[in-house]
Design brief:
Zincin-like; mainly alpha; about 10% strand; 3-stranded mixed β-sheet
Length: about 110
């Protein structure tokens, strides 16, 4: 399991993936979030849950791609799913891992 060095490395990865996807984010922040891994706005603001820094990079990259796709596809329909597959392959396996972690975290609190 490979973890992020720090928030700088995470943000660099967000910018790298955004560049490959030809997406321009206005702001990029890592902050504590209780109920989400990330969020984005129509204004181009991206927020990521600070907890991603302690998780495996694979999970973080899933969240990055997931959120960046919402700049062009606002839902989780067929187009979004096909783009997730194009960028990440079997993304559903990673999605299940992330949901399991979120469930475990909710049970702790």
């Amino acid at each position: 399991m490979t973890k992020w060095r720090d928030k700088i490395e995470f943000k660099e990865k967000v910018r790298e993936i955004a560049g490959k996807m030809d997406i321009q984010a206005k702001t990029l922040a890592l902050r504590p979030m209780k109920n989400k891994w990330a969020s984005c706005s129509t204004d181009g603001n991206l927020n990521f849950n600070k907890q991603l820094l302690v998780l495996d990079k694979e999970l973080g990259e899933y969240v990055i791609v997931h959120e960046l796709l919402h700049f062009n596809v606002p839902n989780h329909g067929k187009l979004w799913k096909s783009l997730m597959t194009a960028y990440l392959g079997d993304y559903e396996k990673t999605e299940k891992k992330l949901k399991k972690i979120a469930t475990e975290e909710k049970m702790k609190s």
